[in-house]
């Protein structure tokens, strides 16, 4: 009886395992497809280029300061505001200057009255010459003092010497300022410079007037420019030379301080495969790779970038018409199954 009971228990256990195994085999796990955008790669043949990181700066920066010390009582502009030539920017307290001017006017009037009274006497010879000289000198000094006092009232107001954009605003209401301290920086940004550091071994390959392509990520645009100036003094630490590229800034989208990528064409020829920069990835070791799609499955393909042309990278290790992932790759791993929702030209 005991043996029969053990046999039944074993039989039930074996049957249960077989059913579980059958269930596992009959319901395989399906891997979810990831939606991606791809690009069909193409061949490229052209000239090499030099890539630099640069900073936008105003073509001209003019510091503006008051001509007299005083307390700021009014500020009429703010940073980033466009101003016209002759526009009033700020005022100082002119109370003392006004009082001084009124006192000077009174003294001028007194000197003028003395002059008018003494002139007939001088003309008929009844006034000593030395006394007449004193009268003339007194009027001249009083007139000069009144003019100086009037100018000091005007010095309490700061005007734009030319049209431009207000850069830094260095004053606040109630603050005492000195003539040597800049109240504002007035910027000329109709045309801007892109300043790039060029290594000494590449400086000889550049020349004034050479064309450049400037990509500004902050505004998502690429602009054209030309080398305006090649520096002659190297940075003592980096041994690089400053090079300025002049760029038209229509619409004032380029702002001083913006970071940009600059490409200057070289003379050597380069050939390879052109792909979008968006396709490039890096693994934990820093190796560049792209995801290549074949039969709805991705493979991580290691690549090496030879050059950057605008928004494209010139690489090796791929074949023409290969499909590389340019969007959605952050969800992928080696062997991921994908669904192509768009092919970018």
Automatic annotation (TrEMBL):
Keyword Ribonucleoprotein attached: no
Residue span, CusB-like beta-barrel domain: 191-267
InterPro entries: Beta-barrel_RND_2, BSH_CzcB-like, RND_pump_MFP
Listed PROSITE patterns: PROKAR_LIPOPROTEIN (PS51257)
CzcB-like barrel-sandwich hybrid domain boundaries: 67-186
Gene Ontology CC terms, in alphabetical order: efflux pump complex
SUPFAM superfamilies, per the entry: HlyD-like secretion proteins
Signal peptide positions (record): 1-21
Record has Signal as a keyword: yes
GO MF, any single term: efflux transmembrane transporter activity
Keywords (A to Z) from UniProt: Signal
Pfam family, one: Beta-barrel_RND_2
PANTHER family, A to Z: HLYD FAMILY OF SECRETION PROTEINS, MULTIDRUG RESISTANCE PROTEIN MDTA
Record family assignment: Belongs to the membrane fusion protein (MFP) (TC 8.A.1) family.
Name of the protein described by the UniProt record: Efflux RND transporter periplasmic adaptor subunit
